Amino acid sequence: MSRPQGIGPGDRFRVRIDASKCDGQGVCGLVAPELFSFDRYGYAYLVDGVQDVLDADDSARRSAIEAEATCPRLAIVLEKLGPAPAAAGGAPVAPAATRPPVPADWSDDRRRLHVGDAVETLDDWKAAGGFGPVERERLWADAEAFGLRGQGGALFPVVSKWRQLDGARDAVVLVNAAEREPGTMKDRYLLAHRPFLFLDGVRLAALAVGATKAVVAVDEDHADIADGVRTALAAAGPVMDGVAVDVTLVPAKYVAGEETALIASVQGGPPLPKWRPPYPSTAGLNGKPTLVHNAETVCQIGLIGARGAAMEATTLFTVGPFGGPFDVVERPFGYSLAALLSECGYGTAGSAGAIGAVIVGGYSGGVVAPDRLEVAMWNDPLKSVGASLGTKSVQVVPAERCPVEVVASILEFFGGETARQCPPCERGLPDMAAIVRRLERGEAQTGDMDDLSTFMGTLAGRGICRLPDGAARVALALLANFEDHVASHLAGACPLVAVGP
Question: Are residues 330 and 457 in the same domain?
């Protein structure tokens, strides 16, 4: 996520809240408790004297920028006032975490995460600098300087999460390796091929928040992956600095990946999301303050611990045809989607064929039209084409496959995976899936499209777990980016089906 437009590291600014957008989720209060408080309904307001705090405190200015970037409904607005006072010693305010520039000469020999088909050994990772002594203060500073963000889909600043648990007693680390987003397998790749990098990251995540216990949650469909981590853990035990790690299996349900549902599963209950607050950072696993990180996030922490902040910011993408099979590739953040696809053999002469659409970010990410592929793989640019980085899944829909049929199958998936706690999911998503399926069969009416657009346009931020947000992105992208297909189906025929004489 980027800094608000027009605000630089040396600027003075003020904060306001658009009350019409605040949904009471309370993320701002976790990121910047010195700036935000809440009324009895959970809606945010500014603390008294907030401008004095912003003018006097560098860390408060950084927190305000992070709060704006992470507010789910964009209810926080930063307005530039002028140059900010210099920090102590004349240093400017440190910038918030932003995407590093993409290296012009990127090549596969600069990969940090992907090791091909090899399986890392303990000696391999130790030889690369792993499991060395790391001071907590240095780890925090390097993670912030690097601009490390969570890799589970939300891109939440990692140090902001750590800050929420700073000073907490009996903290626990919970690693979300229950990878259920269709078309995503980067976490499984890392656990299978980089188990010691992963465990070093667990050790350092525990160091960051003062935890001595960690739990790794793996989807029950991938028990072999869990067994591999347990085997690596037995070898790494002496260098884990006393951090006790438990590897556990959780139900193979899409919604089980949401952090409160994951906690419920690990505790032996059904994978049902919970209303927040309280947040896991306050009362999570077994009621203890809990740091929840994605498996790739933990590996990134391991790399920072071994190498410091001076690294290229690369990540893993899962790439393949819609429905698979898939490959895992490594590229820098912000890499061109068109270049990534071309390098993986799509859309070029003699390749896998012409591209009809691309599902970016997993089913919850969005659908990108073939004429909009020249876009950087980062959330802000992707939003402009109706998608998000999400789990960094890139699924190619061939030109001969109907995008209406693809979106119908995605919405049916969402409708079948709902936790059935909130009416928009339980009742609305199956109804919307049925509308798109009728559209595919040429049986929908114009009024059906109005219903679909209206319903999906009201979904953002609703429900306990935000599962409807992904369904809304996919449906709205279909209506906006594939108007000709929609119009043809409304007229009774798919444009990809040859019409006889």
Answer: no
